[in-house]
């Protein structure tokens, strides 16, 4: 699977393997509101078993294993997030990062290799979510520049107070280290009880961890005042264009009007994730509260993408959202967008990428059936950081295709304005 893909998985106890050197794994159990209900819905090293017994975290052979009993999860839980975080370094530094789900007989039913990690320190790697009476697995790959604290806050976790660790489980005969190709031990269905039942195997000793993520009622995250960058001036070498601020995040459901106040004027990246099967639209509202710029106009199921918007000189950024189902919206500095490199990046939906090097060619492989539109903004000599220069259209085609187009010397903003389907892109040096 590539980022954004989803597929049905069997409604059986699954074992989710999270591989990656130096990565800490955890799970968040979310209700329909997109938030946890309390401490017990956060499963991590300090609390490795959900109170219902349906989700357990173990480690063996350098792999973190999340046993998820899909047949016994409470009805109120609609999503299970698989999360990874780093105490040292960033997600891009984690070698061999992948998430793979196995059925009880050892058959691999879904796998996602994370190849586009950036300077984040926390990421929602994948999720299991209810759909049409069953369960789906989605390759998410959503990183957080503000780390585990930002990820936790987005899902109703209060990071001000630690989660109390559960009592250690009794030690019994250890389970042999699991391997992907061998049959794995299924999670036995367990009825909900106030405390977790004794497991059929002993958890290996857990390494010490920092204070755990806490839990609070799910409320939209208030806009953060501009402050220090999460990592280094300009979010990395070779980039200093546009305003800099702490990302703003809001979650909700169905149609809404979103007001983002307190941001400096200039171009920003708006990421929108919608869990639903209907129409998704996102429009910038002007000072008269009239529709101005259409950012998203899609009929794709479970829409996900990043688009460009501009914070006005005076007043807040106002967005009108049309969506059917739960959604999450994040506004980030342009400098936080992903970088184009000679390694292929895989996405699904519209995207905003940066090119900071010299003259190069851009190789694109688009596997969608609808319109593919790619624009480029040349920033060399453009000193007005409150607006982008006029864009140049590179691609405007319909249907599956492979195409290579020339890019001038950076700094550039490369905007995949329309891409309803999976695609890959990489640089080819000239």
Tally of domains: 3
Number of strands: 28
Rg measurement, Å = 22 Å
- Beta-strand portion reads 35-45%
The CATH C-level class name of the largest domain: Mainly Beta
The CATH superfamily of the largest domain is known as sav2460 like domains
User: What's the end-to-end separation, in Å?
Assistant: 30 Å
Verbal overview:
The protein has 430 residues and is mainly β. The chain folds into 3 domains: 6-154, sav2460 like domains (Lipoxygenase-1); 237-336, Sandwich (Jelly Rolls); 338-429, Jelly Rolls (Sandwich), CATH 2.60.120.380. The protein is built from 1 helix and 28 strands. The protein has one helix at 147-154, and strands at 6-9, 13-19, 23-30, 42-43, 55-60, 63-69, 79-86, 98-102, 108-113, 122-131, 134-144, 248-253, 256-260, 266-274, 280-285, 291-298, 304-311, 317-322, 326-333, 338-339, 345-348, 351-355, 360-366, 371-378, 392-398, 401-407, 412-419, 422-429. The strands form 6 sheets. A 6-stranded antiparallel sheet has the order 1-11-10-7-3-4. It has a 5-stranded antiparallel sheet with strand order 5-6-2-8-9, with no helix packed on it. Strands 20-22-27-24-25 form a 5-stranded mixed sheet, with no helix packed on it. The longest helix is centred in the middle third of the chain and has 8 residues, at 147-154. The two termini are 30 Å apart. The relative contact order is 0.13. Residues 161-237 have low confidence and may be disordered.
